[in-house]
């Protein structure tokens, strides 16, 4: 019986890791949020990669608190987004605005308008780690 418990615990752990790391998975695709990976390339710094993702926010959609295993560079393509970055007052970004989020910094984003919003997120991260890590 103990063996079955360990087996199922292992399966649950694998599914949880896959949900965080596989593009298009349940955690990567929150309600009203669509993440589309555009490109991924190894960098000249060993163990690091650059990943570009287009993130579409439906009106009022929010992406909860999370971190990244590296830096995030945000460029708002359309709409209005509010970012809450740990230790700083909330910031409102509109099309053409940019934001830099240091590695491991807790932050959250939401579309504060009644129209769609879209951003281009570029991550410079540790290779092989999940791009998005939810935070409680």
TrEMBL record:
<dbReference type="InterPro" id="IPR013096">
    <property type="entry name" value="Cupin_2"/>
</dbReference>
<feature type="domain" description="Cupin type-2">
    <location>
        <begin position="55"/>
        <end position="120"/>
    </location>
</feature>
<dbReference type="Pfam" id="PF07883">
    <property type="entry name" value="Cupin_2"/>
</dbReference>
<dbReference type="InterPro" id="IPR011051">
    <property type="entry name" value="RmlC_Cupin_sf"/>
</dbReference>
<dbReference type="InterPro" id="IPR014710">
    <property type="entry name" value="RmlC-like_jellyroll"/>
</dbReference>
<protein>
    <submittedName>
        <fullName>Cupin domain-containing protein</fullName>
    </submittedName>
</protein>
């Amino acid at each position: 019986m103990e063996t079955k418990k360990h087996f199922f615990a292992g399966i649950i752990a694998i599914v949880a890791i896959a949900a965080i790391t596989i593009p298009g998975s349940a955690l990567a695709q929150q309600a009203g949020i669509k993440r589309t990976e555009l490109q991924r390339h190894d960098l000249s710094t060993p163990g690091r990669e650059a990943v570009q993702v287009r993130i579409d926010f439906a009106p009022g959609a929010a992406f909860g608190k999370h971190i990244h295993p590296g830096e995030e560079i945000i460029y708002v393509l359309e709409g209005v987004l509010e970012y809450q970055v740990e230790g700083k007052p909330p910031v409102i970004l509109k099309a053409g605005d940019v934001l830099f989020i240091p590695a491991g910094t807790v932050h959250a984003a939401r579309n504060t308008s009644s129209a769609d919003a879209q951003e281009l997120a570029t991550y410079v991260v540790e290779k092989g780690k999940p791009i998005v890590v939810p935070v409680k």
